[in-house]
Amino acid sequence: MDWAGWALFGLVATTALTAALITAQLAGLTRVDFPLLLGTLVTEDPDRARIVGFFMHLCAGQGFALGYAATFALLDRATWWIGALLGALHVAIALTVLLPLLPGVHPRMASQRAGPASTAVLEPPGLFALNYGIPTPAVVGVVHVVYGVVLGVLLRAG
Questions:
Q1: SS3 80
Q2: Where are the transmembrane segments (predicted)?
């Protein structure tokens, strides 16, 4: 496996994914804010949370890029379409398993069952993160498929 390629291209793909999500949020296509969601795990201040969460997202992206690179190595090939398939699998698991479980571990996120006494400041994402807007699953899906395509193309070239 090309370790230097994995480290560099994972950073490139994660930065592109994060920038695309932030752009979609600023364009009003979704209210999901992964840096805020992640950062508020460790700090209450939303401005600090976005900074901390951005770096947490970069680290998570590096971890996922390692998984993609290992899969490419096991398959002995890296292509854009394999990357796209991995991205689709990645986002399917994230939207149906990981995000719906987040309220159970996030100290500042309400759950679907939180009552009026809840002091949580973040709403739960819900299944497919639909609580953050109807276009959210499509937006998150597209950027994760693009993440996989970027890794498939760059790791093949590397």
A1: helix
A2: 51-75, 82-102, 132-155
Amino acid 145 reads: V
For residue range 29-79, what is the model confidence (pLDDT) as tens digits? 999 999 999 999 999 999 999 999 999 999 999 999 999 999 999 999 999
Q: How far apart are CA 89 and CA 105, in angstroms?
A: 23
Collect all residues with Cβ–Cβ distance below 8 Å to 155 and sequence separation of at least 6.
2, 5, 6, 9, 68, 69, 72, 78, 83
Task: Please tell me the distance from the alpha carbon of residue 9 to that of residue 128, in angstroms, as a whole number.
Answer: 27
How far is the CA of 155 from the CAs of 7, 74, 77, 79, 120, in angstroms? Answer: 10, 13, 9, 8, 41
Compute the distance between CA of residue 47 and CA of residue 127 in angstroms, rounded to an integer.
27
What residues make up the domain containing 79? 3-107+121-157
Number of domains in the chain: 1
- From the list 115, 78, 134, the residue with the least C-alpha distance to 87 is 78
Asked whether residue 116 is assigned to any structural domain, the reply reads: no
